[in-house]
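Holo model, adenosine monophosphate. Inputs:
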Amino acid sequence: MKTLLTSLSEAAAWSAVARREGKRIGLVPTMGALHEGHCSLIERAALENDVVVVSIFVNPLQFGDPNDLDRYPRSLEADCLLAERSGATVIVAPEVAELYPTWPNPPETSVTVGRLGTLFEGASRPGHFTGVATIVTMLHQALRPMNAYYGEKDFQQLTILRQVGADLWSGVAVRGCPIVREDDGLAMSSRNVRLSSEARIAARVLSKSLAVAANAVEQHPEIAVADLEAVVVDALGFGGELVEPDYAVVVDASTLERWSGRIILGQVRLLVAAVVGGVRLLDNSDLTPLPS
Ligand code: AMP
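Output:
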């Protein structure tokens, strides 16, 4: 069996055989340029399933900005090595022409996400979550996993995919995996390679601002949500002029509704997004202190 499959229909045939053999299939959808964050998902999938399929597809439907799509890093050969080493049984890297035959015209049919898709990332990137929900539904439909693994790094995406899973996919458990960080706290992201050396230093301020917020909650458990959000925005200001904050919001971790009242650890999530030296970065925290 080849490890790299270049079409989703081939991967669907592989999946059908695996299911006939009674194997539990774990799915890890990615856009490639793999790093240790992705590897942590693959490793967990390998522990919890008999076979693991990793998809690598830079999904044009979820990019509003064509420049962002063009500049998205791609490294298929290295990705295959990393994925295999982390426990992938099969890697599927389909072509745009197979998944969206009418591209650059979008497909006639897509998966629309309701309220959750209009908030935060959805507000800054209209259509983004339709693109995500559509591709992931196509992957689930073809590969029929028992478990699918998504990172908390993209917390809104994870919340949305739990909802899409409940609404459209039957028999799949959506598993959320913790954020993997660089030594200095920056959340690993394929986009980090696009940071200039100055922007890479400035980008540390995202995780720092989360740490400042967690500390503020520890010191002042009664802190008002608006004050806490202001603390985060102030902290992001220390990143200097390369850092343009987009949002810093405390939300209900299950519904993503804006939180009000006393912070209750375990029920809230702080979401931040900023453009750093032209690169959009996301981070989030449950407001417990980050491990140092
Ligand atoms: P991407 O290739 O960026 O679309 O990411 C593929 C999957 O890996 C998504 O479920 C992400 O949330 C997850 N992921 C990306 N970066 C990290 C990270 N630093 N830690 C944990 N999961 C991550």
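DSSP finds eleven helices and nine strands in the chain. The longest helix spans residues 128-143.
Archived with the compound record.
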